[in-house]
Design goal:
It contains 15 helices and 52 strands. The chain is of the alpha+beta class. Strands 2, 3, 6, 7, 8, 23, 24, 26 and 27 form a nine-stranded mixed beta sheet that branches. An eight-stranded parallel beta sheet has the order 39-38-37-32-29-28-41-40. β34 and β35 form a beta hairpin. α6 packs parallel to α7 and α12 runs parallel beside α14. The N terminus is likely disordered.
């Protein structure tokens, strides 16, 4: 459950507030166009386009425009020859007929192309500039070239000379969008500015009789600086604008500066490495007296000709190449003045075969209690493919851009590369965050499902699909548990079920946000829309005309509220459960009022989580069909997000039986028996029942129903809720499945098991102190169907102990003690990624896009596992190089490796029942498992001493020290081993297991 601002800030009280709050997130990326005219920009009526192309970067001897009018045919290669326009620019005017735009590429006529990194350029009509990949609508030669065109101003009169600094923005083009006082705004995006000196752009405008103007700036690709929504107020004369600071009557910022004519150094160390049909190119940074702004990568080889791509870092991932083909790459460095270095030495790589579509996997099908779990946020764990990294609309606002840390950074390829690290720690199951295609402003965690039938492409790579990950894990004897969400979709609905149509006003206030509709372009989170340059395109979601069958109240009328930037907010502009935008048959139409009330299962948790009506057959079938796909791929289990927000009747009638049926059908009865489903039933209290409400308690969801309810699922949910509330806690079913009968193991009774196990929220809440966690945990065990299946962890991506908002920071000794308890007590030990090195201890687990991910508990972990690691068995690292070798020497790493060795060697610690009868000690217990010829009996004490009475006589050996005791009178006393240490005396045991470490000694 995500009650913290995991997805967006807390749920607003009204729709208008919801809109305002969300828009605050997207407004500063960095800034939207100014609140200028209220009418939408109208496409130019011209039937011609004059295309200007910047020459200084390419420095070709000739330039050709190869184009196709929208809906028309392409010119014959290489296209039409362009002519000189003015310094550093060539141009060509072409007739478009009735078309309102064209697709274009540029070439030197000798096989070298600029095709916008394979996407082509999408251009409109009128005057258009293409400079270093950025498109703007202006005439860069106005008043300067052989064919001067007057700058669009109100007339001769007062002059304003504007200098704008982009040194902290990294823009390669700047446009000035302005409105003289009492006059009209220029057409978006404004007029092109000229380079004045390094990091500065300049434009002189004629204001006529006006003495000031409003202004905003943009990079020609949809990124704006409008002074945080207030616009800039600029006077006549010379004015500088730098980092939101306006200086009137300023000195010339370029005065006295020697023109930068020196190119950066030539990139060195260029290396190309092929991986299937992809090539990763790396090189050493170039140096420049005033800073390198980008690199230009030129690729030759194959049948697609020469391709030139601009890159902002020193790594370039080139994907989807031809098979078994040699490709040669050179790199040049560019600075802010446009100086370009000579080409680097060439690097060549030959691609291999395109990875075949992997065969579907099959679950390993073993008892899940044998498999300790390592939990990763896939997008934050390890980056194996930089080509699928995406920052989204919040990349700059969150601060991630400044850290070069896109929210979608880790991927399946990176996880596959580090499976040996996880195996070397001793874990045999990996719980990963949801894999379905997400859609929101900050969706890297996976809980904003948009297309439940599609794996998010931001996680996949050639040769590293989701199926490849499952298969790679299984090949190492490791399971994959997939996080799944049945309760809600993204706020934009669920593709294939229902998607709300937003009233998206594309006037000058909102055109920066509501993208132009692109026929044939489909959002997938990864592919960049060629017209906006966004991977988070939203042109498919909105309409300015009221759609047929609209149910949203007051469609398109102003709400009376304003966004933080002062923009008018309209009804139906943003999804909301109370606006009528969602059909009641498919989505609930209310906000939660009481987290422990019935409405917590039938209303929206948050404005970014559209709550499914899970009692509707259409919704049920949509979700069952989606998750059948992943069962077919061979996943080993599901971690169920927000399970408490769906009625138990719906789980027991629909979703849980559907899982069992599909696993049985595809993989057999044994696999179905061990397909592990564990639910998140968030109960943040320290009592046995959540504030006395059984309906909201974790153990409640492990049981079948106690009586018959209406055949109608919606009515049955209410009947069950009322019945269980009235029945209270006294008459709930109980179980001895977790407990020994004296010293004897007995066959568990799972006849009333629902099919869902749960996360042990009560232990989780009390892990600030291991003794508290132990006593609170066992106090609830008779009310679970079988507590030996409980998933036990200290902290996670949501909370620390006692509902803490920071990653656990109790200290290394306390961590060791918690781990020693988790790995020997009943339940399945689970570790959140990085806890083995106390990663981000004390850092806020999540703060949404209001702070950089690097400062949170969800920071990127890959730097700590950089290098190579090989593990031939669980807890056994054969070799490690680089930073991962250092990581593997950390004290808690050594501790968890040995704990996993001991647990794996003693069956009683994996699947055994337990008892504390006849035992004196703070955290002391006995466990036994007897089945199939195995009889494993162990006495455990953590940190403190213990005395065991009434135990079987025989020879006991401590798995930690190798100490042997012969019991003849049914009593064994063990001295306190010390903080974090433990003793595991095993009857007829295997002896000492593993080597002494920092705690287990």
């Amino acid at each position: 459950m995500r009650r913290t601002p995991t997805r967006l800030p807390g749920r607003p009280l009204a729709a208008a507030v919801a809109v305002s709050g969300i828009l605050a997130l997207v407004a500063a990326v960095p800034g939207a166009p100014s609140p200028s005219p209220s009418t939408a920009p109208v496409a130019a009526a011209d039937s011609t386009a004059t295309v200007f192309y910047y020459t200084k970067t390419k420095n070709w001897t000739q330039y050709h425009l190869h184009y196709a009018p929208d809906g028309g045919s392409w010119t014959t290669v290489p296209g039409v020859r362009m002519e000189t326009a003015c310094t550093d620019w060539v141009k060509k005017t072409v007739a478009l007929g009735t078309a309102q735009g064209l697709r274009a590429t540029f070439t030197n006529g000798s096989g070298t192309w600029d095709n916008n990194a394979g996407k082509d350029y999408a251009l409109g009509t009128g005057s258009i500039t293409v400079k270093d990949g950025a498109v703007a609508h202006s005439d860069p030669c106005a008043g300067t070239g052989p064919d001067p065109t007057p700058t669009p101003t109100p007339g001769d009169g007062n002059k304003a000379t504007v200098y704008y600094s982009t040194r902290t923005l990294g823009w390669t083009t700047a446009n000035l969008h302005y409105q003289p006082a009492g006059g009209s705004w220029t057409a978006v995006p404004g007029i092109g500015m000229q380079v004045a000196c390094t990091g500065w752009w300049k434009k002189e405008v004629d204001l006529g009789t006006a003495t000031s103007m409003k202004a905003a700036f943009n990079n020609g690709n949809g990124v704006w600086d409008n002074n945080k929504g207030a616009d800039y107020a600029l006077p006549t004369g010379r004015t500088t604008v730098v980092d939101n600071t306006v200086t009137p009557n300023a000195g010339d910022p370029c005065a006295g500066e020697t023109p930068d004519t020196k190119a950066p150094t030539v990139p060195a160390g260029v290396a190309a490495k092929a991986d299937g049909v992809s090539v990763v190119l790396t090189w050493e940074p170039s140096t420049d007296g005033r800073g390198v702004t980008k690199y230009q990568v030129t690729r030759t080889g194959g049948t697609r000709g020469t391709v030139v791509t601009d890159v902002g870092s020193t790594v370039f991932s080139d994907a989807n190449l031809e098979e078994k083909t040699a490709y040669t790459y050179t790199v040049r460095a560019a600075d802010a003045a446009g100086n370009l270095s000579a080409a680097s030495a060439a690097a060549t790589a030959t691609t291999g075969e395109k990875p075949p579509t992997p065969a579907a996997g099959k679950p390993l099908g073993t008892d899940p209690r044998k498999d300790p779990i390592y939990f990763v946020l896939t997008a934050r764990f390890n980056d194996g493919d930089t080509g699928n990294n995406r920052g989204g609309s919040q990349h700059a606002k969150s601060g991630n851009a400044a850290n070069n840390d896109p929210m979608f950074r880790g991927d399946f390829k990176g996880l596959v590369q580090k499976l040996d690290y996880i195996k070397g720690l001793g874990f045999s199951a990996v719980w990963i965050t949801p894999v379905v295609l997400n859609r929101s402003d900050y969706d890297y965690h996976g809980y904003h499902g948009w297309d439940f039938y599609k794996v998010d492409p931001r996680l996949e790579s050639a040769g590293a699909s989701y199926q490849d990950l499952i298969n790679a894990a299984h090949a190492k004897g490791m399971k994959i548990y997939q996080d799944v969400v049945y309760n809600h979709s993204s706020r934009w609905g669920a593709k294939g079920l229902f998607v709300p149509t937003v009233h998206g006003v594309r006037d000058s206030q909102w055109s920066w946000y509501y993208d132009e509709k692109q026929t044939g372009f489909e959002y997938d989170g990864l592919t960049v829309d060629p017209k906006t340059g966004k991977s988070y395109y939203n042109g498919d979601l909105w309409s300015t005309a009221e759609p047929a069958g609209n149910t949203c109240v007051n469609w398109g009328k102003p709400t009376g509220a304003k966004s933080p930037e002062g923009y008018t907010i309209y009804n139906c502009q943003w999804p909301s459960p109370t606006s009528g935008m969602f059909p009641k048959s498919l989505y609930h139409n209310c906000w939660i009022g009481n987290w422990e009330g019935e409405d917590s299962r039938s209303c929206w948790l948050h404005d970014d989580l559209a709550d499914f009506n899970t009692e509707d057959p259409q919704v049920q079938n949509h979700l069952i069909g989606a998750y059948n796909k992943y069962i077919d791929m061979g996943v080993d289990g599901f971690r169920v997000d927000t399970a408490v927000h769906i009625p138990r009747t719906t789980w027991n009638r629909r979703f849980l039986p559907a899982i069992q049926e599909r696993v049985t059908q595809r993989h057999g009865a044994e696999a179905a028996k061990n397909f592990f489903v564990f639910g998140e039933v968030a109960a943040f209290v320290n009592d046995k029942w959540n504030r006395g409400s059984v309906n909201h308690s974790a153990q409640f969801f492990t049981w079948k129903e106690r009586k018959e309810y209406s055949a109608d699922d919606a009515r049955a949910a209410l009947e069950m809720y009322d019945h269980e509330q009235q029945a209270g806690t006294a008459n709930q079913p109980t179980s001895a499945n977790a407990f020994l009968d004296g010293n004897a193991y007995h066959a568990p009774d799972h006849s009333r098991f629902s099919g869902m196990h749960v996360i042990d929220m009560r232990m989780h809440m009390n892990f600030g102190d291991a003794v508290n966690a132990f006593h609170n945990g066992k106090d609830s065990d008779d009310s679970y169907n079988d507590a030996t299946y409980n998933v036990v962890y200290v902290d996670s991506h949501d909370y620390g102990p006692n509902k803490g908002s920071e990653r656990y920071a109790g200290g290394t000794d306390a961590w060791a003690e918690n781990m020693s308890l988790m790995w020997t007590f009943r339940g399945i030990p689970t570790l959140y990624y990085g806890s083995e090195i106390e990663f981000q201890a004390g850092k806020k687990i999540d703060c949404g896009p209001t702070c950089p991910l690097a400062t949170t508990g969800r920071a990127y972990y890959g730097d700590h596992v950089a290098g190579d690691v090989k593990a031939s068995d669980f807890s056994k690292v054969d070799s490690a190089t680089g930073q991962v070798a250092t990581t593997l020497q950390k004290p808690l790493v050594k501790h968890v490796q040995r704990l996993n060795q001991i647990r794996r060697a003693v069956p009683a610690l994996q699947t055994g029942q337990y008892s504390t009868q006849g035992i004196q000690g703070e955290m002391a217990f006995k466990r036994r498992y007897t089945a199939g010829g195995t009889d494993s009996f162990a006495l455990v004490t953590v940190t403190h001493g213990a005395t065991y009475t009434g135990i079987p006589n025989g020879t006991y050996t401590d798995a930690v020290t190798g100490d042997t005791r012969v019991v003849t009178g049914g009593t064994l006393t063990v001295a306190a081993p010390g903080k974090g240490n433990l003793r595991v005396y095993v009857l007829n045991g295997p002896g000492r297991i593993g080597a002494a470490g920092p705690y287990l000694k």
